[in-house]
């Protein structure tokens, strides 16, 4: 697998976790998902971080006023509260997904290069590595 493909894999999937956290709130409210843990703190952090009155207001930040760095910065906010069971689960799940993707990507390397594969983590989401790595 080329380095470029690995970079794209990490970039696309490393940046979506804060969006998955936001989607969880919509899915819960719409009755599509019933989280096992409370989303109360996650919801409060979302409203405060983006200075919005309700979760629907986030759509403006995701579309017309989209700035990847602004959305990604929500990961840092969540990481500061990683002791919250719901937020901890989101980070655990993120780590699990990234781990699976790395194993699959490394499997495409020639067999003589699989014994030791260096992994370079780039992007704001990896500033939260201490809570992602458990997954």
From TrEMBL:
GO MF annotation: an example: N-acetylglucosamine kinase activity
Domain of life: Eukaryota
InterPro entries: ATPase_NBD (IPR043129), NAGK-like (IPR039758)
Name of the featured protein: Uncharacterized protein
Gene3D superfamilies documented for this protein: 3.30.420.40
